[in-house]
Each structure stands twice: as C-alpha cells, then as structure tokens.
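Structure request: Amidohydrolase family protein, Dyella humi.
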Amino acid sequence: MIIVDAHQHYWQPARGDYSWLAQAPVSLQRAFLPTDLRAQRKAAGVHYSVLVQAAATEEETHYLFELAQEDDAVAAVVGWVDMEAGDVGARIDALIRDGRGLLRGFRPMAQDLADPDWLARPSLDRAFDCIQDCGLTFDALVDMRQLPALLRRLRRHPQLNIVLDHAGKPAIGDGRFDQWTSWIDELAQHSQLHCKLSGLLTLLGEPVHEDAIEPYVADLFSHFGPERLMWGSDWPVLTTHADYEHWLHVAMSLTERYAAGSQAEVFAANAVRFYALDIDLQNQGVRRDLTHHAM
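Returned structure:
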C-alpha cells in the first residue's frame, strides 16, 4: 500500500526565524533535515510526504522549496504568507511561481497569536479569497481557543478547502473531552473541512498512557468519517513522545478498529485528493511530472 505522510516538518534553527523553538523541548532545538528522516521513513514504508512550514516567514517557505529538491519523497509544500499584507495577492502569486508546482497551501501559525479571533478578522478576507481563487488549501493550526473563529471563517468561505491540523489540539493530557467534541461536532458539519490524524501523542502529559488518545480518535472517525481524515506524522515534534514507525502503527491499528478497510484512504488517497498531489495511486504511486502541474 502506498502511504503518504500528510504532515511533516524540516527546520534549521541557524536560519534564525523559528522563534517558537526557544520554548520547545531541548531535543527539538536542533536541525531536522532530509538526512535525519530518510531512513526512518523508508523503514516505516512511507513513500511520500507533505512538507509543512514551521516558521512565520516567506523566506522559510523558499527554504522548504530548496529542501524539497533534495528529498524526492516530498510531494508538496504548505507554506506561509503574510496574510495581512496589502499586496497579499502578489505575494501568493510569487510563491506559486517560485514553488514550481510544489506549493499546495498556506498555514499561518494562528495558535501562537495573542488574538484568539484572528482567523475571523475581516482584514484576512482578501487573503482567503486569493487562496481559494488560486486553488490552494488552508491548514488551520489552532487549539481550542481559536475554534470559534475557525467556525466563523468556514461560514464566510464555504468553498475553501481547509484541514484542521492535529485535530484542533484537544486537551488529552487533562482528560477534557466535552468542550472539544462539541466544537468538532459543529466544525465537521462543514463538508469542506478535513482533519489530520496527527499530533495526538504529543498532547499527552506524563504519566498518561497513549491509550488515552483512543476516544478522541473514535470521535474523529464518527464526525469526519474515513473520507475526510488524513494521517500525518508531525515529525520531528513526534520524537518527543514516540518514533516515526510506532505512531504509524498506532494510527493504522486505530483506523482499522474504527473504519475497517479504509486505510488506503486515510493513509494516502485523502491527502492526494485534498492537496492535489502529483501521485498516481492507480499506478503504484508513480509521481507525475511536476512541471506540467504548476498551480
């Protein structure tokens, strides 16, 4: 079976624009590059991945384009753009051009912003219009504080393809469930919203066992179904709690438990469809020529 990792990162702290790393675990405060992941990904049987931004700069997006040229497994890049810039349309056009077919969407780091209502600001309407008009996607990096604003954005842009990163970061470590599932119930009613089965193990506190994620995963399958969920490793953030292959096996086991027979969708087809990846799943996952699919 072809497997696509819908969410992984690379970063190089020496570049100087990963401010959030200063508060991250020490183990993450180093470079994580293609040479660090290649063997692990191969051993796990993962064929392709979507490379997601980790710094709030357009310079880092260009850096990811460069890294993607070194890593044949990277099928797409989700970048960053200044969504409040007056020339946001021109900035998006430039990144599309410079990505030469790699750029598939954008992700502002909304979870780190002081204003929990930032996503719903009318000043962002133009940026969302441009993303939608260009056929790109939007990754929502939010926690429960921003879910109300995300819901308002969904209502304002009902045609925008949005994916909820890390299931909206439920408070698994605290055992809180009701508030999160109530928001998921409302969000999932918007058919354009997808969700990533990613980042859940890193939400566990000590000494909470990884089995604690199961009711949350069950709830995700209940609300989104296997057709709107896509697996992601969230590597290297994952490394603080588990190795790459272990999380893949945990996610596969849970998928089989709650949506038997749907692994091909959750672990490849949904990501290929959502991000319009140049991967032919009917032909053993052969990559198409990116130069013919520039967006």
